[in-house]
Write the structure tokens for this entry.
Amino acid sequence: MRIGGCDAIDMARQYGTPLYAYDEAGLRRTCREYLTAFRAAWPRAHVAYACKAFATTAMLRLASEEGLGIDAMSAGELALARRAGVPAADLTFHGVVKTGEELEQAVAGGVGYVVIDSAEEVADLIRVAARLGRRQPVLLRVNPAVAVTTDPRYRTGDRDSKFGLCIADGSARRAAAQALAAEQLRLDGVHFHLGSQLTSAQPYAEAMTAVARLLAEIPGWRPSRVVVGGGMGVRYGDNGPAVPTPQRWATSIAGAFRQRLASHCADDVILGIEPGRSVVAEHGSTLYTVGTVKPSQERPGVIILVTDGGLSDNPRPLMYSAVHDVVAAADPLEAGGYVADIYGRHCETDLLFAGVRLPRIGRGDILVVRTTGAYTYCMASNYNRFPRAAVVFARDGMSRLVVRRETTADLLATELE
């Protein structure tokens, strides 16, 4: 098994396991594909990487180098972007609840846009901008109440979502009027995000229709920017559903925008998207070392494997019933005759992957879990006080450590007694 041209077993030996390993060339290629495809479909398109999917200094620098903006939703993600050298104007600051301190950091730092997510936030932002003597560009996040076909845990744009200002009850219209009247704010446009793991552009089109109705209720305002969020799906596992390519997404979304919403906007309107998962997921893998092998007592022919990682480095199987392909690093093309249930080593019954076919496998062998580039490292924890894993970028047969493994000293550093 090779990742970015590097042998997975060699990387496991060099950096230890669990280990997050990324194909850097693949990351760069997908960033370029999104940017090229959307600018071909809508010349004034803007692509921002939703860094909640995978946020490290190296990843944010890579996305910026490839021409993408950065969509951040916390002071920590903003700090990472600054450390990575991302221009402040390329940053969009999100968050359903932003503290006064966070708003002050964002405005003082000159972020390109603050996305208003609630009626209360309009007044908060006016006060912060007035105190700093700045006029802050903003977008209004609206809730178009569009149902999407995905896991309910992934939905963010339905009627009772905690995110955004509801269009149907007039909340979005009233907040827009308040922002337009405030000399401390410059309301440039609207934003919506419908959810995650979407496989069709139809929900985006429906949301655009709802936004067009909203704009018709705000006379004299033609937004110069419309951001339709991210949510582009990823295929997990060989048997997962097919998902559109960046080119297909661009054609479908830009076509719907041209047909349903562009005429309500400024002539030079910018169409924005914020992909996250679909940029990084398939280019990341997680490497584990097998620690325990034992036969199942209830199911003849099934073996139980316990790895040196688990819930703390990949909570998605337990949180979202996530499915990933698992292969033996020494022989990734051989399915083999063994059926394994793979567990983590935590003080939980953390079954990660059930019924995995593997060749002969033993203690000390390396397993590679594919398509773990999104929402693994960024959701990692120190459960059971395990240190978080290292992150490696691999390209053209060379690997480099971009995040070192935590130590026990790191875990104790915040303890005061």
The first strand starts at residue 2 and ends at 3. The mean pLDDT is 94. The radius of gyration is 23 Å.
